[in-house]
Design a protein that fits this description.
Elements (H helix, E strand, L loop, with lengths): L4 E6 L10 E6 L12 E6 L2 E7 L14 H10 L4 E10 L9 E4 L1 E5 L24 H13 L4 E3 L2 E5 L7 H9 L4 E3 L2 H10 L4 E9 L12 H25 L26 H6 L5 H10 L1
Amino acid sequence: MDGWVLGVIGGSGLYEIEGLEDARWERFEGPFGAPSDALLTGRLGEVRLVFLPRHGRGHLLPPSAINARANIDALKRAGCTDILSLSAVGSLREALHPGDFVVVDQFIDRTFARDTSFFGPGLVAHVSMAHPTCPRLSKLAAAAAREAGARVVEGACYLAMEGPQFSSAAESALYRRWGCDVIGMTNLPEAKLAREAELPYASIAMVTDFDAWREEVAPVEVTHIQAVLGANAARARDTVRRLAASLPAHRPPSPIDTCLDGAILTPPAHRDPARVAALDAVAGRLLRSRSETA
């Protein structure tokens, strides 16, 4: 693996990346179903880029209806080496204001109605999520966001809630006591699935509101969020362009590229052939090599 293929997952307000050379929308559908939309492929300078609107163009999908397994599988099939997530979040901290870009490095998962793994009965694997984001890609993304004019905060814990309703005031206060910094509905199980697919993942969380914990401020409403989304989306597009321009010509290997080594517990003779076939993109590197040597 030498060059970068940058996968970008766009959240609320970000449904397309302008300025791509040789741009075209391509349909991908694999064993986990259809992703949120077609993938927009093209080039930014020397970097191949694959863009996926997380909610679909027109914002058709609520968080619980997003097929994150299909999304990550499609990006892997499209040849992505790394993934940048862009998403709207609420702030759980006084110092994190609407318009700020927050580079996430930890998660707490409070989702409950989603498929969280590519693995399962017939093929069992356990990957480490101690450090769920890629520090290299996160640093590069933070620098690109600053160059795009954003106020950037590096290092934050993202509370992933199920939604689609916003938090109660009591929940918002609880998450603050837990040490969470921002709250959203989409980065999990996305980050977990990216790790299982051996794709380094970085998350820029774009603050749109203060959630429900500030008693002196009206609770968050969609109208509040929409007022901030436009400016955030324009700056996010510029961040992507600057990130692509900043990537070194040669992509050094990442430990995440081989994080499945030692993670699969089911020996080849006992693996479910159907599940092995479904993981031809996600874990094909390891499954092929193991089956050939078994």
